[in-house]
Design brief:
191 residues, single chain, Herpes Virus-1, binds zinc ion
Length: 191
C-alpha cells in the first residue's frame, strides 16, 4: 500500500459495497473520496511528469513513481509554507535532486519550495555554507537552513545504503531510514 491509497468510500446504508447507480449516498461517498484523492495526487502528478520531461531532456536517470513524490505543507528546507496554485511562486512545490548528478531516482528527491530549490541550485553542502558566510540577514539564514537540509538528506542516503545490506542489520537500518524519511518530510522545523 502506498501513501496515496485512500480508504475505501463507505455508504451509511451499503458500507463499502457501493451501489452508485441506485443510491445517492453511495455516489456521494465515492465522489468525496475521488476528489480528495485527486486534490492530493494532482500536484504530485504534475511534478512527476515535469521531472520525467526534464530528465529526458538532460539525459538524467529517472525511475520515480508518482507515489514517491510527496508534497508537504511546509518546505523541509526553509520552513516556509508550500502552496499549490495556478501560478508559480517561491512557495510552489519543486522537486529537488538531493545530489543533482544522480538524477530523479528513488531516494534522491524531495519536494521543497521553489525558493529553496532555486537557492540550492547545484551547490553542495560546503558551497551552501560558503554562501551563508558571504550573505547577511535572511539570505544567510536561508543558506544555512539549506546546508542543514542537505546534510540531513545525505545522512538519510547513507542510512538507506546500509538498509540495502543482507539480513537482520539491513532490516534494522531500513526501519531507521523509514523513520528519518518521515521526519524529514514533515519538517516542521521552527523558524
Ligand atoms: Zn448506499
Amino acid at each position: 500500500m502506498s501513501v496515496y491509497d485512500p480508504p475505501n468510500p463507505v455508504c451509511p446504508t451499503h458500507g463499502e459495497r457501493l451501489r452508485r447507480s441506485t443510491c445517492p449516498a453511495c455516489n456521494a461517498a465515492y465522489m468525496r473520496s475521488y476528489l480528495k484523492t485527486q486534490r492530493r495526487l494532482k500536484p504530485a502528478v504534475a511534478l512527476h511528469s515535469r521531472a520525467r520531461q526534464r530528465a529526458a531532456r538532460r539525459g538524467l536517470p529517472f525511475n520515480l513513481r508518482v507515489g514517491d513524490v510527496i508534497v508537504p505543507t511546509v518546505c523541509p528546507a526553509l520552513g516556509i509554507p508550500i502552496l499549490i496554485g495556478p501560478t508559480r511562486s517561491p512557495y510552489s512545490p519543486s522537486l529537488d535532486r538531493i545530489r543533482p548528478g544522480l538524477g530523479y531516482v528513488r531516494g534522491n528527491t524531495r519536494v521543497i519550495s521553489d525558493k529553496a530549490n532555486r537557492l540550492k541550485g547545484t551547490l553542495d553542502a560546503e558551497g551552501l555554507i560558503r554562501r551563508a558566510v558571504q550573505s547577511v540577514d535572511q539570505r544567510r539564514e536561508d543558506y544555512a537552513r539549506l546546508a542543514a537540509y542537505l546534510e540531513r538528506e545525505l545522512l538519510l542516503a547513507e542510512v538507506r545504503r546500509k538498509a540495502g545490506q543482507e539480513g537482520r542489520a539491513g532490516v534494522e537500518w531500513a526501519k531507521v531510514a523509514a523513520f528519518l524519511d518521515k521526519a524529514f518530510q514533515k519538517a516542521d522545523w521552527p523558524r
